[in-house]
Amino acid sequence: MGNWDGAIIRSVGWVLLFVVAYSFYEIGIPILTYPPQDFIAIFGLFATVYLAISVVGWLVIGLPFHWAVCNWPQPKFIYYLLACVSVFLVVSVVSSIEACIIFGLAAAAQAIVFRYYVFKSKKI
Asked: Are the C-beta atoms of residues 35 and 23 closer than 8 Å to each other?
């Protein structure tokens, strides 16, 4: 199954950094419009909710899917993107298209980063 625990931490962390950087690009640096304590509270709340949703997603969808894919002869990137399609379909049933795109892209980015790191050999 590879180094799945380190790969999960890296995938969640890299996507969190990307989302924060994109939000700074999109809405500007909020510390200039909010007091610092409000910015820290909003960022902490966002990061906590993101991490909670990511952990639940990995426990419910990601790890069982990774285990199933590892039982096949060659785990490929496309198989991991199929899991993202399932996230997109489930969210589309219960929410709007904007939520589908946001959760689908976050799941796809996490899956791609996870697949890259999970079977990468450690260099000493």
From this structure: no
Q: Tokens in use for 79?
A: 């198989």
For residues 116, 117, 123, 124, the Cα torsion angle rounded to the nearest 10 degrees is 170
pLDDT tens digit string along 50-83?
889 888 888 888 888 888 888 877 777 788 788 8
Among 98, 67, 65, smallest CA distance to 81 is for 65
**Cβ distance 108 to 84 under 8 Å?**
yes
Q: Which residues of 94-119 are buried (b: 16+ CB within 10 A; e: fewer)?
A: eeeeeebeebbbbbbbbbbbbbebbe
Q: pTM of whole model > 0.85?
A: no
Q: What is the reported pLDDT for 44?
A: 85
As given in the structure block, the two tokens for residue 47 are 């990061």
Under the banding of pLDDT at 50, 70 and 90, the label for residue 124 is very low
Within its chain, how far is the Cα of 34 from the centroid?
A: 27
CA 93 from centre of chain: 20
The token duo for 17 is 């950094």
Measured in residues, the chain has a length of 124
